Amino acid sequence: MCGIVGYVGYRQACPVIIKGLHRLEYRGYDSAGVALIGRDGQIELYKCKGKVEDLEHFLEGKDTESTIGIGHTRWATHGAPNDANAHPHFSQSGRIALIHNGIIENFRVLKDALKSHGYTFRSSTDSEVLVNLIEYIQDTNECTLEEAVRMALRQVVGAYAIAIVKRGDPDRIIAARQSSPMAIGIGEGEYFLSSDAASIIDYTQKFVYLNDGEVAVIEKGKPLQIKTLEGEASQVNIQKLEMSISQLEKGGFPHFMLKEIHEQPDTLVDCIRGRVSPDSREIILSGVLDNKERFLKAGRIIFVACGTSWHASLIGEHLIENLCRIPVEVEYASEFRYRNPIIRPDDVVIAVSQSGETADTLAAVEIARREGAFVYGICNVIGSSIARATDSGTYIHVGPEIGVASTKAFTGQVTVMAMLALVVGKLRGTLAEEEYHQMADALLRLPDTIRKVLECAPAVEKLSGIFTYAHNFIYLGRGYNYPTALEGALKLKEISYIHAEGLPAAEMKHGPIALIDAEMPTVVIATLDHTYEKTVSNIEEIKARGGKIIAVISEGDTQLRKRADFCIEVPSTAECLMPVVSIIPLQLLAYYIAVNKGRNVDQPRNLAKSVTVE
Ligand code: M6R
After folding, report:
1. What pLDDT sits at residue 27?
2. How far is ligand 1, taken at its centre, from the CA of residue 161, in Å?
3. CATH number of 3-243
4. In angstroms, rounded to a whole number, what is the distance separating the alpha carbons of residues 420 and 431?
5. pLDDT in tens, 460-515
6. In angstroms, rounded to a whole number, what is the distance separating the alpha carbons of residues 308 and 295?
7. Relative orientation angle of helices 482-496 and 307-324, to the nearest 10 degrees
């Protein structure tokens, strides 16, 4: 999705902005641009279709001397990805330049009204409508730019994070947000602005996260001023973000995705640290324990999530139903929000999101809270919108995930869900002490188990060569590993663009088995669990029809070694933690196939890392 970076202070703004935009590239985008206020007070605007690198070439030889600027990466919503639609956008007079993330839903009505007042438009974007609306309001009301921004935003329906600069005003940026992230970095005599605080962590660790409906006036040498759309002063709440720059770099790997796959043993250490005691094997999740009553009395748990986070939630369903005996529903956030769902006061809604910014999940959280449910967040990004909008929650603490394909977030989410189910199961007395301690042991061993699984990487790389040119794949699993099959298929399709379908293994015979022939590889997760024998039968059914089987099997399984065409062995762990283990070879398989096909693994076509529009 679109990204925003801004700077006002004593440094050269352009290099700060370009560096920040590079850091935001992971979000997915198709054009980039920057607006700078030159020494003569004029706004210089440079933008083009393509990558930030293309913008850098475009800037070569241009006068970019300026200590104030706003920059943008655009992920097209209204209008094709081209130079004209790239941000920033000037107002009609050229007095104001604006960048915008999000969607102005009522832009058509506003555009028609502005046209009737003589406005013309250079782009097809909703964002240009907004900048002209601000200019029109300022001109007709003869008010300050800040007042005009607040008045304009009161007329807007939709989502936005915006940053604005004005000709002749080289010390000031105005920013606002509604359902789209915006962090303001506080330096010594300088301010930074970004859609993702991590992108400006080189300069400061002190951040203010704007809330919905807030407008900030960011002025060099002056205290930060934040007001609501109605003009009431808001509190400026400065938070510290602990993060190292090395977490944002590839660390010797060719792609972020591969780095993130390989760092899972360490990210799981961070996820478990301080939560599972190595001595007593006691599990402490303060977000749950501080709200014991809500979990003890829960009549139902509803997960709301999208994509990979939705797959992790399906595993959460198994965990909670098995260990806590609470009925669970797993909802696509995008469906939940528009379905008039029945939400009861004793429901606990768990919102799962790596970015904490997914628009549909955030909307589902708002609905659940409005209906009186207790809302718990499982997020990765600290201080993200969902983390702040929920009543309580647990961070997965896996560090910044830059590759668009989610990997370490999935294993972190499942691990947090396992800890949550164990804590709640113990509270509710639905879990035997012995099982609790065995699972705590398995959790403590999990990072080492994953280290061991990763040893399969060279074999998976070799295997990938055989299947690079397959056009379709089926992924099968049962029980805890059915969601793993869905996740494995998603990984393959999003980065290699090969069609892949995940299914519960037993569903094959109800239709999809018709697809099986020698050209259709089937990846089966067939580790030793209570569904193993059934899965073996499903494999036989596919083999009988000439299908090729790639099986993820438990170490030492000689039966499937003989039956499957290709096997990847993985070590064992507690059955309910098996998805964390069995997803690793599937992440690697997708990665290597995509690399073989020459795909842009970290920024696959059409995709954005965090989907902040509906
Ligand atoms: O940040 P979130 O976890 O809320 O994101 C949800 C999905 O957009 C995300 O998981 C997406 O499906 C990934 N590209 C999967 O790899």
Report:
1. 78
2. 20
3. 3.60.20.10
4. 13
5. 999 999 999 999 999 999 999 999 999 999 999 999 999 999 999 999 889 999 99
6. 25
7. 170
- The sheet with strand 548-554 has its strands ordered as 499-504, 472-477, 521-526, 548-554, 566-570
pLDDT tens sequence across 328-385: 999 999 999 888 899 999 999 999 999 999 999 999 999 999 999 999 999 999 888 9
Residue type, position 614, single letter: E
**Matching fold, domains 3-243 and 456-596:** no
| DSSP label of 129 | H
Cis peptide before 88 (omega within 30 of 0): yes
Determine the Cα–Cα distance for residues 259 and 269; give it in Å rounded to an integer. 16
- Residue owning the nearest CA to atom 11 of ligand 1: 307
Whole-number Å distance, alpha carbon 601 to ligand 1 midpoint, is 15
Question: Cα–Cα distance between 32 and 14 in angstroms, integer?
Answer: 13
Residue 358, ligand 1, Cβ within 6 A: yes
Q: Which CATH number fits domain 456-596: 3.40.50.2300, 3.40.50.10490, 2.40.160.10, 1.20.1290.10?
A: 3.40.50.10490
User: Can you read off the two tokens belonging to residue 92?
Assistant: 């009609």
Nearest to 317 by CA among 331, 336, 333, 297: 331
* Letter string b/e over residues 519-550, b meaning 16 or more CB atoms within 10 A of that residue's CB: ebbbbbbbbbbebbeebbebbeebbeeebbbb
Hey, where are the domains in the chain?
3-243, 250-431, 456-596
Check if 522 has its Cβ closer than 6 Å to any atom of ligand 1.
Answer: no
pLDDT tens digits, 254-283: 999 999 999 999 999 999 999 999 999 999
Overall residue count recorded for the chain in this entry: 614
Is residue 28 scored above 80 in pLDDT? no
- Segments in 505-557 forming alpha helices (H): 532-543
Kind and range of the H or E run holding 43: strand 43-49
Which ligand 1 atom is at minimum distance from the Cα of 386?
4
Instruction: Reply yes or no on whether the pLDDT at 154 is more than 80.
Output: yes
The confidence band for 153, taking pLDDT boundaries of 50, 70 and 90, is: very high
pLDDT for res 75? 85
Q: Identify whether 2 is a catalytic site residue.
A: yes
Which of 49, 259, 426, 609 is an active site residue? 609
Q: Would residue 609 show up in a list of annotated catalytic residues for this protein?
A: yes
278, 444 Cβ separation under 8 angstroms: yes
* Nearest-angstrom CA–CA distance, 358 and 78: 19
Q: Please state, for a pLDDT cut of 70, what percent of the chain lies above it.
A: 100
Contact 31/47 with Cβ under 8 angstroms? yes
Residue range 28-51: mean pLDDT, rounded: 93
Against a cut of 0.90, is the pTM above it? no
For the domain covering 250-431, report its CATH number.
3.40.50.10490
Residues 6 or more apart in contact with residue 179 via CB below 8 angstroms: 102, 159, 160, 212, 359, 362, 363, 385, 612
- 48 by DSSP, 3-state: which? strand
Residue owning tokens 């919503």: 77
Tell me the C-alpha distance between 481 and 582, whole Å: 8
